[in-house]
Amino acid sequence: MSLVESTPAGVPEVANNNEDPPSIKPDKKYTVQTSDGQTFEILGKVAILSEAIQHAVAVCGEDHPIPLSAINGRTFKHVLKLFNMWADDSKPFDRAPHGGRGMGPNPDGPEFEYLRTISVNDELFDLCRAGGYLLSQRLTDTTVFYVHNFLKDKSIEEMCSFFGEEYDANYKPAPDAE
């Protein structure tokens, strides 16, 4: 019985049968290929942090490169740095963000220390998007919470600068149409 079936749209998906898909082995090395052709060797304990990579291993097999068509090598290097920090971490977050709803990253923790070293805003945006593409809730939460923390006390001019937008002091929002 085949582990991989094809949907009508031609998108491979894991077959829903009694066979278990290949599980990620923590000490096995997996090859990941980014959109710009760079390849990375990652350990299974790192690959487990991405649901998309887990699914790709089930679809492509353990010994084939895992394509990451929406992430470039520069961004994946940042992803790997964060994933390696978390690979042996048994508790995802140690504090409650967002007014106590759920758990989130510690602004004084090593993740934020690393994110503070990224000086190019486009790299932060790409890292936020990578969390969604890789289906990694922890990566998404950490990067979005970092950007939120960074911007929370900034003026409108500073926020416009951060996002690469031109500040228009004469801009007035249109009155609500009723």
Automatic annotation (TrEMBL):
Highest rank taxon of the organism: Eukaryota
Gene3D superfamilies named in the record: Potassium Channel Kv1.1, Chain A
Ranges that cross the membrane: none
Name of one Pfam family that matches: Skp1_POZ
UniProt region (Disordered), positions on chain: 1-31
Domain SKP1 component POZ: 30-80
One GO process term, biological-process aspect: ubiquitin-dependent protein catabolic process
PANTHER family per UniProt: SKP1
Name under which the protein is recorded: Skp1_POZ domain-containing protein
